[in-house]
Amino acid sequence: MWFIHRNNLRSVYPKGRSVFALLLFGLLFLITGCHPSPLGTEGESPTKKTLRIGYQKAGTLNLLRQTGNLEKRLQPSGVGVQWIEFPAGPQLLEALGAGSVDLGSTGDAPAIFAQAAGNNLVYVANTPPEESGESRAILVPKDSPLKTVFDLKGKRIAIQKGSGTHNFLIQALEKNGVAYRDIHPVYLAPPDARPAFDSGSVDAWAIWDPFLAIAQRATGARTLIDGKGIVSAGGFYLASREVTKHHGDWIKIALNEIRNTAKWSLANPRAAAEILAPKMGLSVDILEITLRRSATPGQKFIGFRPMDAEIIATQQKVADNFTRIGLLPRHVEVSAGVLLPQEYAQITPEATP
Fold first, then answer.
1. Which of 88, 132, 145, 187 is 20 to 30 A from 343 via CA?
2. Is the whole-model pTM more than 0.90?
3. Backbone angles phi, psi at 38, to 5 degrees
4. Which domains, ranges and CATH numbers included, belong to the chain?
């Protein structure tokens, strides 16, 4: 039986004469032989021995990091794990595109913006959106005169550009008769958005958990609208194409441990919150709220959902939405980041009850 025990946690060249050419070649050989080339260059990936995972504060990856279970699974193969924290999905995928991260998870929009920027990422697996939609919302201060989404016309709204909540904001506005061009978006990462919200330099804030739960608890901020009924593919586990090609077994092991961790967290949200809270500098109550909101009771897929045509089609709709309102520099074909069925079979663990 798989379980998490508290005691097992870890804080986790120019032309020239032939002789000169030979000497130059030899020098280059010595240099490149002593210093490994960046990820993605020919000949490097097969000998790579560290899986670099980008994670955000809340979520299964951070919990998996605390347990050390992925390290235990990969250790027999001589593979280490490096964990790198990011404030949001766009920053994480920028690092993945630069070759500094091998695997990570984000919402729907960051992957689309990354593809538009030329990021050669791969959609590894999907995390379905929670049914309640409570994990993201548009907040206003408790004493704000704004009462409805329609009141946001002409107002300044803080939002992390290219985040999953950016997609939510666009749809929430349009559902209530407000075009995106009718507002003044203020693009801020969550750590910068909170002071702007508290000081009143923005009128509203479109944000996700745990930042959402923290603001609600600390300031009494009101919710104008949450994510229920918003079209979203959910979130994704994304990887570099080089790692999926050369080290698919690592991805398979990681997905399996992600699923195990998600199962445990779903059954034990309070205990999971107690593990995460000290490392995040948040209260256990806030983390428990975040974990419970992100869960869907009776859900068929726990931890992740294998990629399929329906998920890809939904993600394409989100991409087309961003293109339609002029936020993307070009049309994005989501399928460019999708593997062949036989390739997915090599990196996806078998389903378990």
1. 88
2. no
3. -65, 160
4. 6-129+233-347 (3.40.190.10), 136-226 (3.40.190.10)
